[in-house]
Structure formats: C-alpha cells, structure tokens
Specification:
With 452 residues, this protein is an alpha+beta fold. The chain has three domains: 116 residues, Tetratricopeptide repeat domain (Serine Threonine Protein Phosphatase 5, Tetratricopeptide repeat, Alpha Horseshoe), CATH 1.25.40; 154 residues, Mog1/PsbP, alpha/beta/alpha sandwich (Protein Transport Mog1p, Chain A, 3-Layer(aba) Sandwich), CATH 3.40.1000; 110 residues. The chain is built from 15 helices and 17 strands. The strands form three sheets. The protein has an eleven-stranded mixed β-sheet with strand order 1-2-3-4-6-7-8-12-11-10-9, sandwiched between helices. A four-stranded antiparallel β-sheet has the order 14-15-16-17, covered by helices on one side. Strands 5-13 form a two-stranded antiparallel sheet. The N and C termini lie far apart (63 Å). Keywords: Signal, TPR repeat. InterPro entries: TPR-like_helical_dom_sf, TPR_rpt.
Length: 452
C-alpha cells in the first residue's frame, strides 16, 4: 500500500512562497537583475512543479531527480525534503526516505504531512521491538541508521532522530523521549508511585512526551509487542493541580467506551483523589479481549496512575484480589530523594518508609539465599557489587540466613548527607551497619553485600 497522500492545501501553501518569489523574479527581468537567492527560489519552484507532476504520473525516479535539484537550491525548505522523502519511499528506498523526512520535521515542526510520515516510520520501528528497553545500541543503529546527532553524557548516550531522543545506558536503550511540547519543568518528578513487583517482571518500555511519563513492565518471557500480562506506571503532568482522580477516571471511561465494546466497568474503591477501578473489554480488530485494573492518585502537581492488564481470561478471583491488594499497597513518595534537600519531616517519613521496605526486601532476600537464586538477588544491589553475588556466595550464607530475621537485620535506618545527595545506613539490632542504601533511578539499592 502506498503511503503518498494527495498534495494538501498545506503543501500548496508551502510552495506558494516559491511561486510569489518567482513572480518577483519575472517582474524584474526587464529591469535590474534579481538577487541570486531569488533566482534559486525560482529554479527550485520549477523543479518542484516538475517533481509534483512526476509524482502524479507515478514516475518515481524522475520525481526524485527533480526534488533533489530543488532541495539543492533550497536546502532549508521543509516541504521539499518531505516531497523528496515521499518520492524515495514510493521508489522503495526506505532508508533515504527516512533520512529526508527527519530533515523535514527538524526544519519545520508545523509541517503536519512530514510529521505524520515520520510517525509512520517510528510506528514501524516500534513494532519491530527496537525501541524496547534493553535493546543494544548496535541493534538500534542497524535498523534506524546513523542518528541526526549523538551526545555522550557520562555513562549515558543520547541519539537524536528528528524530534525523538533515544537515551541509552551502558550501550543499551533506556528510554524514548518525544520532545514535542515537552517542558523541562515536568521532566523532573516531584513525587512517584512506589510499588513492588515480583522478580519475574522487568521493564519493557519507557516513554516520556509532552503530557506524561510512562513505564511498562512485562514478564521475562514476554515483550510489550506481544504480551499476556502487563503492569504500567504513568505520571500525568500537572493534572494533579487541575482534576481529581475521579474526574480522570471518567475521562478514561469515555475514551475506553469510544474505542472498545465494554463488557464491564466497576469502581472497586471510590474516592475523589484516590480511586481504584476495573473494566473488561471485548476483542476488536486491533486488540484481544482484556481485563484491566487501575488506580489513580492525585499528587501535589501530577496525577499518578498504576494499571495491571491481562489477556489471560477469565482473570481468577484470587489473582484479581492479589492485584487489587498490590495496587492498594503502592504509595506516593518523594521522587529523587538523593538529589534534593529534605525537610526534617521528609527525613522522618523517609526513615519510616525505608525501615518498612528494607524489612520486606530482606525477608525476600533470606528466601532467595535459601533457594540459591542469584538472578533474583542481584537487582537489589548496585552494579558495583552485583558480580559478587554468585551461587557460591549464596551457599556460604545459607546457614547464617536460616536463623536471621528481618527485624534483627533491619533495626533502624539513618539518613546521611553525602556531597549533593543522601544515602541511608541500615543498622542491625547489635548496632553494627548491615549495609548502605543509595538512590539509583528512583529506587534504593544496597551498595555493600550484607551477607557472608
């Protein structure tokens, strides 16, 4: 199926400026010679008109030749790059089409035709899974080609394709950022939802755009393109100041009812600023039937949304209750606590949270030690010490872990300021330090191995 649309009023308007300039050149032919830039515009218009005629007649290579001449004369004209992209695409030269449409959108973010064409390419890449978290940089470059720009930011790398940024950590994709309308004010979270997923879950996709920050989790054997279960967390920028959680639920309900055949809609836990609800929808031509459970909480600035969705139907009552309880247990907490000063009240609250959470995590770790589960243990520790967690080290710790309790190991937590950030010292009942916790990507990780 061809992607080339009819020439719109927008295309004609973009070329009209060339027409007007050409008329000025013709009017001046009987007098003083026109400036060279006006002559170039007139020649570009001539080639653009011929290119349009070739496109209409489906003579793709001739269209390419004419638009290449026009672009050479007017390299800053977004519409000419867009039409050249269309010509390349019709001639099955996808890589060149992708390169030209990126130039078009960078030159003019109001060029709707170019943006729509760009997003068709981006949707294709998304369906291939190359935009998933963890994709190696070499695979990204293999499919998307050389970026428009590349920046090294310490251990991170940023690749730019048009208005899309790809952030990589340790040479693997970490997040996709759509810069259109994105305000730096909202890229930094004030609060975030803290929740606990089991070890079988992993981050599959991260996206930030002008309205929200979204992270999608899938089980280790699935992908965001093909899943049976998914867990999502979303921060909706500034809506906490504008609408209640209940109002946001009603907006979602209206959108769902427009797109799906709703089999059930149920409010589980009502509340103006903290609400839990669910719905089931029938299959349609785009998606299979699914059951989704949501929680929306109103924060100081943003709205926070958690959602569990399954396509494994029917969802058993036991699993349904488990996910409802999991959503209820999630908390809105201070984001990036290690990168901003804390008030005494905030420190006190953070100590309470870390003490409770540390005991829960230690209980899990004691279980993993008994099972010798290296893969489950490693994510709780910083990358600096993860390689020290091996089958052998867990086997040596098994006897010690058998008699230890979370309450003995985590007796107290102390917040310490270190440079521009903070860390947390976890103290045992005997007064010795168990481990040091440091904030890493909105979660706390142990920076020392506490077991022997």
């Amino acid at each position: 199926m061809k992607l080339y649309p009819p020439v719109s009023a927008f295309c004609l308007c973009a070329l009209l400026s060339l027409v007007q300039t050409a008329s000025q050149v013709q009017a001046q032919e009987s007098g003083t010679a026109a400036p060279s830039d006006q002559e170039q515009k007139a020649q570009a218009l001539k080639h653009a008109r011929q290119g349009q005629a070739h496109l209409k007649d489906k003579h793709w290579k001739q269209a390419i030749a004419e638009f290449e001449k026009a672009v050479k004369l007017q390299p800053q004209n977004s519409m000419l790059h867009y039409l050249l992209s269309v010509s390349f695409l019709e001639d099955s030269q996808g890589s060149k089409a992708w390169s030209e449409v990126r130039k078009a959108v960078l030159l003019d973010m109001q060029n709707r035709n170019a943006i729509n064409e760009f997003l068709k390419f981006w949707s294709f890449f998304d369906r291939q899974g190359v935009l998933n978290v963890g994709t190696p940089e070499v695979e990204v470059l293999k499919l998307l080609g050389p970026p428009d720009s590349k920046r090294e930011l310490g251990t991170e790398t940023q690749l730019t394709y048009g208005f899309m940024w790809l952030n990589l950590q340790q040479a693997s994709l970490y997040a996709v950022i759509d810069t259109r309308g994105l305000s730096t004010e909202y890229t930094k979270a004030l609060q975030t939802m803290e929740f606990q997923l089991g070890p079988k879950w992993r981050v599959g996709y991260r996206l930030m755009n002008g309205t929200s920050a979204l992270t999608e989790y899938v089980t280790t054997e699935e992908t965001v393109q093909k899943y049976q279960q998914m867990f999502s967390t979303q921060r909706l920028f500034k809506l906490g100041k504008e609408v209640s959680a209940e109002e946001m639920m009603n907006r979602i309900k209206n959108l769902v009812e427009k797109s799906y055949q709703v089999a059930e809609w149920n409010v589980i836990q009502p509340g103006e600023n903290d609400i839990i609800f669910e719905w089931r929808v029938a299959a349609n031509e785009k998606t299979p039937a699914q059951h989704e459970i949501n929680r929306i909480v109103r924060g100081k600035r943003d709205l926070h949304r958690l959602a569990y969705v399954t396509r494994e139907l029917p969802l058993s009552e036991g699993d349904r209750k488990k996910w409802i309880e999991q959503l209820k247990a999630a908390k809105v907490v201070l984001a990036h606590p290690g990168k901003q000063p804390l008030t005494p009240e905030q420190k006190e609250e953070l100590v309470k949270q870390l003490t409770k959470k540390s005991r829960e995590i230690i209980a899990l770790q004691l279980k993993y030690i008994q099972e010798g589960d290296v893969e489950a243990m490693q994510p709780f520790f910083t990358k600096r010490v993860r390689d020290l967690i091996t089958k052998e080290s867990l086997a040596r710790a098994r006897e010690q872990a058998a008699s230890a309790t979370p309450e003995e190991l985590v007796h107290s937590v102390t917040i310490e300021e270190v440079g521009d950030g903070i860390q947390a010292k976890v103290k045992m009942k005997n007064g010795r330090t168990l481990t040091t916790l440091v904030p890493v990507n909105r979660k706390w990780e142990a920076d020392t191995i506490w077991f022997k």
